[in-house]
Amino acid sequence: MTVARSHTERAVPHHVGLPAAAGTPGRWTMDPRTAVALLLAASITIMAPGGLWFVPAALVVGVLLAVTERAWRRAVVIPVAALAAAAANYLLPLAAPWPVLGIVAITAGFVLRLIAIGGIAAHLARTVSPTRLTAALRAARVPSAFTVSGAVLLRFMPTIIAETAAVWDAMRLRGLGGVGGMLRHPLLAIEYFTVPLMASSLRSAEDLSASALLRGLGARKRPTAMHPPRFGRADLAVVAVVAVLIATTVVWRGAL
Amino acid sequence: MIELTGVRWTYQGGDVAVLDGLDLRVERGETVVLCGPSGSGKSSALRLMNGLIPLFHEGKLEGEVRVDGAPITDLALVGQVTGTVLQHPRRQFFTDAIDTELAFALENFGAPSERIRRRVAEVTAEFGLDELTGRLRELSGGQQQRVACAAAITHGPPILLFDEPTSNLSARAVDDFTRVLSHLRDLGMTLVIAEHRLHYLRDLADRIVILHGGRVTRQWTRPEIAKLTDETMRAEGLRGLRAPVRAAVATAAARGPSIETADAGPTDAVAGADSGVALRGVQCGFRGRRVLDIEEAHLPAGRITAVTGPNGAGKSTLARVLAGLQRHRGNVLLDGRARSRAQRQRETAIVMQDVQRQLFTDSVDAELRLGMTPEQADHAARVLADLDLDHCGDRHPLSLSGGQQQRLVVATARLSGRRVVIFDEPSSGVDRRHLRSMTRTMRDVATGGAVVVLISHDADLLDLAADQELRLRPLS
């Protein structure tokens, strides 16, 4: 059976144009595959031994990405937070030889790495919708077992969060919530929380999965995309900037 | 187009056949309305037509089902000839933007990109979606339903199935939806609509099919529909075929930017409210955006106050403020004394829209006893009988039907003896008989001296229950 071309298709006048409230990317948006590759590369490099050398480069990338999406607050927060973490990491052990300060300094070192990766991750989360990410992963030939379950997971997260808040409200109104109640009867409190959460989440999940399956999610045919992901100028610019930053880091490291 | 012959269906774990001897034939281009009391098998009949029974829901199926001339063997295949619109459009959206939602089915069915873009643009223009802005979850209920209809037809199925599509829509949104249906009907599509609200379908339906106990007990053709009287509808337990004409209801004493002032009554009654709930300078916002601003309002004890207004007017926010679940500025007074949020949480009960969130225990009896005093629990049997639940005491709440679960939560709210009881859209998916029992329960709670707040779009229910109306408007 092929996708039926019904009377509704013939009845409407031909009209081409993009609708309002579109989830489509602009011309200068990075391809999600580039964004995912960048995030993976940054995470592996920075978390590996000697990764601290690459933190400044990742921070610069994070700030530049924040600027391109006009997230001014993030563009300021990333370097300020990184400076604070770096100061704690390098200066605290010099202030006094106390073990506590040493532990804080080591923790600050990890936080510094996380900030550097977090800047890039935040850009990915803010600019790539689950739909585009799924389309990109399909284009990258990732098996459908991963793309379908990943798409469902991303779609269902906000539902779980909303249901959790609603169940918590319902518990408070029945006098079952609150810290006191949880401490007095911890097992009962867990039961009162999880049973309605699972029931209401399952109900939402049933509607969602029924609707998605009827609209062909996971069908045997190879899915297509309304806007197939394409590498463009933005990706080229990102690759160029990252190459320059890596080269600078290597030269700087060699010079010291 | 659709043929159901001698169908008998029992859900896995169920004792009773939900469909039992169902015979129904729907012709190409026909508009058929399925109605009947809650639990009569309307939704299950739709699930047969789109293959969810037996390919998604498990159980025992006998009889024959043919859609578009062929038996159903694969969900994706039947999905290409049918489009389905559910009661809660928000739950069936898979993406967060209009164009990606419209494209979803075509992408999964492997249509070429160029054709997807052209088709999405066509349907967007056809349904007037260009004027909508923002994310799907930020649209009003009526707008979401319009997008859900558009998403169901973008891949060009000749059959459209609707499961109680207006149960969460306001009167104006129902009018919009009626125009969409009329348009689809004019295009020659086959429409099957399971519904309780029937007035908007009077001029659209080619046939009304009544189900009882999982089989067709009666059918009315178009000339017969035109002659139907309200007495006939009542005898069948169905809601009326005429749009309910709301009798003039007193306007609640209130003022402030969130209050619709067009038909506001005297506001000096706000002062001196020493019985019931009074709001003074209540303001609420999310992420810097003001959503509720009421200078003064009075919700008297012993009466049912209907809170109405379009989506986004702050109805749910007001309910959360009253229940002490929402941070806000200003004061909320109960019987003349300001109460903290924690105090209000102990004084308030809510019947939520999704009642599964409020069922905590493993039996109906345990659910009623939870948090009750022995005196309150003494009334349990009477309340259960009144709400048609007297035979369910030992059953697990989650094994009850949706309507029964809702009535169970209503029973707990009634027994709780709280001073403020809020009903949030309690009539979605409710037939005529239970609409009346729901109204009786609210009346009993009010007569017991509680402040009863009813949030609803349902004109039938508002007409039966509301003593006064607090109409809210969105803050721009």
Comma- or semicolon-separated keywords:
heterodimer; A: 256 residues; mainly alpha; 10 helices; flat; B: 476 residues; alpha/beta; 6-stranded mixed beta sheet; 6-stranded parallel beta sheet; 18 helices
Question: What do these coordinates show?
Answer:
The complex is a heterodimer of chains A (256) and B (476). By secondary structure, chain A is mainly alpha-helical. Chain A has a domain at 30-128. Chain A is built from ten helices and no strands. In chain A, helix 3 (55-68) packs antiparallel against helix 10 and helix 8 crosses helix 9. Chain B is of the alpha/beta class and 476 residues long. Chain B is built from 18 helices and 21 strands. In chain B, the strands form four sheets. Chain B has a six-stranded mixed beta sheet with strand order 6-7-8-3-9-10, with helices on both faces. The termini of chain B are far apart. At the A-B interface, helix 1, helix 6, helix 7 and helix 9 of A face helix 3, helix 5, helix 6 and strand 18 of B. Chain B: GO terms for molecular function: ATP binding. Chain B: Residues 2-238, 277-475 form the ABC transporter domain. Chain B: Probably part of an ABC transporter complex. Responsible for energy coupling to the transport system. Chain B: Its main location: membrane. Chain B: Keywords: ATP-binding, Cell membrane, Membrane, Nucleotide-binding, Repeat, Translocase, Transport.
